[in-house]
Amino acid sequence: MTAQEVRLCGLLLQEHFGEVVERIGTHLLRGGAQNLRTIANETNTPLDLVKKSLCVLVQHGVCDFGSGRRGPGSPVEYRGNCERVLRILRYPRYIYTAKTLYGDTGELIVEEVLQRGHMTMSNTVKTVADRLTHNMEEGRSMEYSEVVSSFSKLVETHFLQRCPPVAETATAAPSATPATHRTPASVTPPTAESNPDCYKLPPVTLTGRGKRRRSSDDGEEPGGVKKAKMDSESCGDEGIYWQVNFERFHQHFRDQAIISAVASKLDQTSSEIVRTMLRMSEVTTTPTAAYTQPLSANEIFRSLPPNYSISRPILDQGGSLTGRSDLHRALANLARATLESVVQERFGSRSARIFRLLLRKRHLEQKQVEDFAMIPAKEAKDMLYTLLSENLVQLQEIPKTPDHAPSRTFYLYTVNQLPTARLLLQHCYKTVANLIERRLFETKENKRLLEKSQRIEAILASLQASGAEPEQLTEVEEMITAPERQQLEALRHHINKLDSTENQVDETIFLLESYIISTKSK
Amino acid sequence: DCIIKVKCAHIFELCQQFPHGITDQVIQNDMPHLEAQQRAMAINRLLSLGQLDLLRNSSGLLYRMKDAQTASKMKGSDNQEKLVYQVIEDAGNKGIWSRDIRYKSNLPLTEINKILKNLESKKLIKAVKSVAASKKKVYMLYNLQPDRSVTGGAWYSDQDFESEFVEVLNQQCFKFLQSKAEVARDSKQSPMVQRNSSFATSHEVWKYICELGISKVDLSMEDIETILNTLIYDGKVEMTIIAAKEGTVGSVDGQMKLYRGVNPIIQPTGLVKAPCGLCPVFDDCHEGGEISPSNCVYMAEWLDF
């Protein structure tokens, strides 16, 4: 866990869960596994706040707990999961994907589950139905069954999964005797996939419709709450919590990247074929597999969308009759293109030429670089030294004589893709953290103005609800002067831009992370 | 003494028979009764007369007949000059630097310079400026064409690398390949045919460039291939090699190189859309420092854009 990663995690935790959780979370990430007492003492936080924060973190899968180092019987230790925190950055992308695949219902389901961490199916369905009903016209409401069908589709395609069962580890309860231990103190928490029922829907039927929430419904609240409680009790799926299956989403993103790369490199038809191949092997390939299952041309042909007119001979010509995607190579190519793109934008097209040249030819002398790239010696030297100082290019010494005399040594320039990718990944983390900090700064700078505009909007809304006259409304509106309005516009524009750029940098993060993970597991 | 002269003539005849040179062994075989000492004296005489060249190869010493023309030219020079001339001749068309001449001949610098001036005035050698180090001068025989590594070949004119020329060629080749790919795409045939017809052989590109007439120098197919390689390193072009029958136009050693314009496989990546991705002081930036996200001028400009 690098300093940049911890910094970014801290910012994300603070934005989503608040200061206290951020303090606890950062402490966990920095310090490794610790028990409750240690955390409370070192962060100077009262014990109950620590407990609540840990609950929040565990609920969202950021924190795991397990028995302590000194074996069962010692206090439980908590471990922070940095990777999981970084996923928070990607939430918008997950939600958007769910929307494109399964419409508004899917989008809201995923959003709810992401926000709550773990949820039961009944709870999710109810909340989503209510939200959808709220946005619909008067008199219409959302059927639970529709939401349930979207939910089950998400589960079928593995986008949602059951949370892993909690292992029976020794807690601080002194009454636990060794005989009652069913599972030994496991070092690693159980994964979701270890549960065979991971993708099975609970056998409950939910009937009903979404309820529209009105602001004048305050009086009904106590009754409504009681009713909701009774409903959830009768649903019968307590204890079966669902979480978002991030790996599955990542698989989807990866497939998308590959398909668009094929489309740019070859043509539309080939990319359709690749898309079909990848879709067919969606559920059969594990996320970390290097290759997809081999498929015969027949299967591919049959699975192509029926309205896509493509004749058999063309498919055969497309090559690879037993289609098998080399996923690792595809990721490596995408990562390589990313690195090249960064060098090109940052240092210019000629430096990019040198960079690509070194990637292809691996090791080259100074003179050879000049000759191959056809760049005058002085400029080539300058560019190579710049790249070297940025650590994008490395120098390899090969001595001719045992005494390593400089005049009798070969100095070869080389690019190592994996370390360079790691370096760029750290840059990405720092960049996102910078963007978030700038956004917070901009908001803080204009806090007064934002508060004023919020107050005015609240006044306007209440006036409208109680049926005010147009003159009153305009009078209130004019309380914000024109320059202030302009400033607000600019602020909104800035914040949007920063937000969208965070997402774009996250795309780079995804590509580089996938490549690094795929290489490590090779 | 007469005997020696006779032996000399004999050996000289042998040399004429074998213009590539003869070894001691050959002389011994031909004249088995000649004693080693006498042989040595004869050879030395021929050498001093400037009629034989003494060379060394892997197996021993070699005696070669000297070129008559140069032999006459060298008549007026003394041994030192001959030695220097020999050294320069050995360097062939790559030329040799004055310091290297000094090492090889073990003569002091002043002598070398005098001799070099002398030889130059006699038009036996010439100095050529090397492209690698512009101050360095290499010497080679007068009538030799300097090697490409010295003059730089087609891309150098007067020791200057012609960047604009290379750029122009680069762009022209790329345009040619791009238009070919577009034509193939517009023909709307099956993907495989489209792909194949968007390829161009290096020969085709070479012909196109020659017909354009933008080059003052003659460019060979190899030259064009180096230009096409730079396009590959730019990521704009890809290359495949196919087997071609010997004798097909443009094939070299039974292969042909095909080039094709390509699109980049990804758009410029997300990191470069943020100012931090391109920031020159990225490493100095941290919150609370002089350069920080809060007071970053690049960000301020970029946000207002």
From TrEMBL, chain A:
The keyword Transcription applies. InterPro entries: POLR3C_WHD, RNA_pol_III_RPC82-rel_HTH, RNA_pol_III_Rpc82_C, RPC3, WH-like_DNA-bd_sf. Residues 149-316 form the RNA polymerase III Rpc82 C -terminal domain. Residues 8-66 form the RNA polymerase III subunit RPC82-related helix-turn-helix domain. The keyword Acetylation does not apply. GO terms for molecular function: single-stranded DNA binding. Residues 339-415 form the DNA-directed RNA polymerase III subunit RPC3 winged-helix domain. One of its GO terms (cellular component) is RNA polymerase III complex. Its main location: nucleus. It is found in: Nucleus. GO terms for biological process: DNA-templated transcription. Component of the RNA polymerase III (Pol III) complex consisting of 17 subunits. Belongs to the eukaryotic RPC3/POLR3C RNA polymerase subunit family. DNA-dependent RNA polymerase catalyzes the transcription of DNA into RNA using the four ribonucleoside triphosphates as substrates. Specific core component of RNA polymerase III which synthesizes small RNAs, such as 5S rRNA and tRNAs. This is DNA-directed RNA polymerase III subunit RPC3. The gene is POLR3C.
UniProtKB/TrEMBL annotation, chain B:
Keywords: DNA-directed RNA polymerase, Nucleus, Transcription. DNA-dependent RNA polymerase catalyzes the transcription of DNA into RNA using the four ribonucleoside triphosphates as substrates. Specific peripheric component of RNA polymerase III which synthesizes small RNAs, such as 5S rRNA and tRNAs. GO terms for biological process: transcription by RNA polymerase III. One of its GO terms (cellular component) is cytoplasm. It is found in: Nucleus. The lineage of its organism: Eukaryota, Metazoa, Chordata, Craniata, Vertebrata. It comes from the Eukaryota. This is DNA-directed RNA polymerase III subunit RPC6. Component of the RNA polymerase III complex consisting of 17 subunits: a ten-subunit horseshoe-shaped catalytic core composed of POLR3A/RPC1, POLR3B/RPC2, POLR1C/RPAC1, POLR1D/RPAC2, POLR3K/RPC10, POLR2E/RPABC1, POLR2F/RPABC2, POLR2H/RPABC3, POLR2K/RPABC4 and POLR2L/RPABC5; a mobile stalk composed of two subunits POLR3H/RPC8 and CRCP/RPC9, protruding from the core and functioning primarily in transcription initiation; and additional subunits homologous to general transcription factors of the RNA polymerase II machinery, POLR3C/RPC3-POLR3F/RPC6-POLR3G/RPC7 heterotrimer required for transcription initiation and POLR3D/RPC4-POLR3E/RPC5 heterodimer involved in both transcription initiation and termination. Belongs to the eukaryotic RPC34/RPC39 RNA polymerase subunit family. It comes from Esox lucius. Its main location: nucleus. InterPro entries: RNA_pol_Rpc34 (IPR007832), RNA_pol_Rpc34-like (IPR016049), WH-like_DNA-bd_sf (IPR036388), WH_DNA-bd_sf (IPR036390). It holds the Pfam family RNA_pol_Rpc34. Gene3D superfamilies: Winged helix-like DNA-binding domain superfamily/Winged helix DNA-binding domain.
